[in-house]
Amino acid sequence: MQRAASKAALAYPLLVATTLAWGLNAVAGKFAVGHISPLLLTHLRWGGAFLAALPFAWPYLKQDWPVIRRHAPLLIAYGAIGFSGFNAALYSALNHTSAINVVIEQAGMPGVIFALNFLVLREYITARQLLGFVITVAGVALIVSGGQLSRLLALDLNRGDALMLVAITCYGGYTAALRIKPPMHWLSFIAVISFTAWLGSFPFAAWEYASDTIIWPDAIGLSVVGFAALVPGLIAQTAFIRGNELIGGNRAGIFLNLVPIFGTLLSVVLLGETLHLFHVVALTLVLGGIALAERGGR
């Protein structure tokens, strides 16, 4: 009992700090628009995160090398899809939609995890969980359609909001797959998937260069790269993995509900974005649906 309480006392601040950092990630990505292209930002971010993690992870990488070799395809998928694919879509989305939209749409991620667990792992679901999932999807649909659901029926979507659907699918798949994470030290795990994310993002950056759409970073762009690599990248991802280990994925996943709250407040305060009524309604639907699904699962 006392040991469980001490684990929770360490996990809770780690997970709150994680969600605050991920809320800031959307704000930083919005600041980066025009100062560095989104796919180059993704590539440099994960390269920086890997180099920063390497000195601390090196002893554990040597220790876990047999596990890394044995599970290489899974580790490559974690980095290339969960990290690189998610961030490439998110940073690209911020070129076409608001940071408020992006952070509220991220709240649909638990719904993706829920659906994947049901479809792939055949997890049992209750009527309350299903209702919560439907309410959450309705909230995300309200944001994607800009408050006009008729646009959604006509597939008249903002390009940025459509990209965010790709982003949350990538990270939702990564999070659902964490339950089969190889038995590795968390430092070697974050270093390996940062490296595979760096490699996986290279074709994206190369495509930007080949299509002459690349924007080389100026001082602001480099600042965003450094911040994104260290804070929402290396530190927050490590804290989230560690929090999962301490209290389990189901309890840790509840903290993801704080991302849209932090992100919305930060977007209004730091970016001066306007909070519309449909944003408030959508946020209420998303968080209410997740809460209902969580209660139905206990």
UniProtKB/TrEMBL annotation:
Q: Any stretches that span the bilayer, and where are they?
A: 39-61, 73-94, 100-121, 130-150, 162-180, 187-207, 219-240, 252-271, 277-293
Would you tell me the Gene Ontology cellular component terms?
membrane
Q: How does it sit in the membrane?
A: Multi-pass membrane protein
Organism superkingdom: Bacteria
The cellular location(s) given in this protein's UniProt record come to: Membrane
Which residue intervals define the domain EamA in the entry? 11-144, 159-292
Which of UniProt's keywords are assigned here? Membrane, Transmembrane, Transmembrane helix
Its family remark reads: Belongs to the EamA transporter family.
Protein name per UniProt: Membrane protein
